[in-house]
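Hi there,

I know you've been waiting on this one. I reran it after we fixed the sequence typo, so this is the corrected version. Both the input and the resulting structure follow.
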Amino acid sequence: MTAKYIQRSLEPVLKKAAGEFPAVVLTGPRQSGKTTLLKHLFAKKYNHISMEPPDIRAAAMEDPRGFLEMHPPPVIFDEAQHTPELFPYIKERIDAQRDLPGQYLLTGSQNILLMEKLTETLAGRTAVLRLLPLSNREIAGWPQALLPWEQDHRDAKATAMSRTDLWKGFLRGQYPELVANPDRDVNLWHAGYVQTYLERDVRTLRQVGDLSQFQSFLRALAARSAQLLNLTDLARDLGVAVNTAKAWLSVLEATYQVMVLRPHHANLSKRLVKTPKVYFLDVGTLCYLTGLKDPEHAAAGPLAGAIMETAVLSEIVKSLTHRGIEPQVYFWRTSTGTEVDFVVETGGKLIPVEVKLSSTPRPAMASSIKIFREDLGTKALAGYVVHPGDVRLPLGSGVTAWPFGHF
């Protein structure tokens, strides 16, 4: 039985890009739905060629011009990072028909290798878009729903969700295969995903030698999710050089497994921390790497706050990224410990977002946002306290309590 297709927020952006650029590159983590999306939108007009099979790769590398002659545009080249040797020849063909849009659609799950070659060869000829795992709005069937600060609150879409369902969803994560197949064993799927990621993606990148040590780094990083990240301490605990830890972090960032969140430093008169935080882009990956399997245990355990924060950040990042917008998200923390979990920059203005585990919002939950707004002045807009309950109400000081199910 074929799984039901889940409409993606990126669809109109992708169609527009294919109508304007000779080539479009769709990047994102493995299994985020890139191939499914391209086939759904373009299967009737485009041939689809996967560059993963060794014989296809060999044919492309041995005779690039002959290969492109056999597979003329419009064509989708899936997992194109395997054959970067093709890019100069694709450029050659594009330059012969520069005004013809939508000739080549390329996908890739290894940002480092793909983007290095692309920036050298296809600059100015290609639109680069990213597809991350599903957002809540895509899962709920509202792919174009706006974020709270972009909409009239009376028009906000809402999904009623019990506490148990919420935490089951966090453990499952939002990769399309798991969402479309609710009977799949979550732990087995994530175990296979991490192993595939390590064996197929990471081992081909120059910064990684010892895969087992890298996997230890991955789990240690997950345990520190949403905390200020001291790479020196982490490297010492693992017995690796700090530069190795930095290189490995860049690998995880470039392959869309983690996001490094940096502090916002608009007001230099206050002492603000300069250390970044790291979040996993899929909350299910985070739960798997930290050994969480039971929703009640996850909800009551020491990582509950980090999991909830990861879910909120992931929703912000995916919602913006899938509209073709580069998310500008930071955190704000003073040297005395006053902190706002997320600060979203949009149009030169700043939206503060706090995440709380309590389902019962109280005005005291808005205290950090109030200090932030006083400090940043007119740059700071109304703020939000996102919580797991179902109550939406004003908390004073320009702050609204907002249920995660509505977010």
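Quick highlight: The chain has 17 helices and 13 strands.

Best,
R. S.
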